[in-house]
């Protein structure tokens, strides 16, 4: 019997050394995320953008705004392929003690379909539970059917909240819907 090799994949808390990789992951995801919302020239790119994003990530990892703010990184071998950020929810109708937020969920386009998103999402939910949140929320771009379908397929659902952002000021519009899921384990 021949065994097939398995990929060396995992999810862990991000380290300070991950800042450049997290910046690259996020900046490379933006053209797809903001397609049709922002013109390509409005998106940060180039060495200066990479340096600024790396500095922002380094500061966030070194001094999170809240003790329950966590950044998770999905790895294939030792290569970062995705990230997730959890924190207390800040929406006015949320309770920051009870409600946690999945602020960011990114998997590199070339690495999708390999289970990294599922692993990241499960690790984020486990992290939110460990931080004693009872519910998780996540804002999804209204036109991002793939992410919405992925989350709904894992038990998340729309909670009726929606918002419209202007990511580059007046004249740009990004509509979002909020999904939520219970983090409370069902008892038998």
Radius of gyration: 17 Å
Query: Mind telling me the CATH superfamily name?
Result: Gcn5-related N-acetyltransferase (GNAT)
Query: End-to-end span in angstroms?
Result: 41 Å
The overall pLDDT average reads 89
Going by helix content, strand content and strand pairing, the class is: alpha+beta
In terms of DSSP E residues, the strand content is 25-35%
Estimate the global geometry from the Cα principal axes.
globular
State the helix count. Answer: 4
Largest sheet: 7 strands, mixed
The number of distinct β-strands equals 7
Give an overview in words:
- It is a single chain.
- By secondary structure, the chain is an alpha+beta fold.
- The protein has one domain (9-182): Gcn5-related N-acetyltransferase (GNAT) (Aminopeptidase, 3-Layer(aba) Sandwich), CATH 3.40.630.
- It has 4 helices and 7 strands.
- The chain has a 7-stranded mixed β-sheet with strand order 1-2-3-4-5-7-6, with helices on both faces.
- Helix 3 links the parallel strand 4 (99-107) and strand 5 (135-141).
- Helix 1 crosses helix 2 (46-62).
- The longest helix is centred in the first third of the chain and has 17 residues, at 46-62.
- It is globular and about 45 Å long.
- The model is unreliable at 1-5 (pLDDT under 50).
- Pfam families: Acetyltransf_1 (PF00583).
- GO terms for molecular function: acyltransferase activity, transferring groups other than amino-acyl groups.
- Residues 9-179 form the N-acetyltransferase domain.
- This is GNAT family N-acetyltransferase.
- InterPro entries: Acyl_CoA_acyltransferase, Bact_Acetyltransf, GNAT_dom.
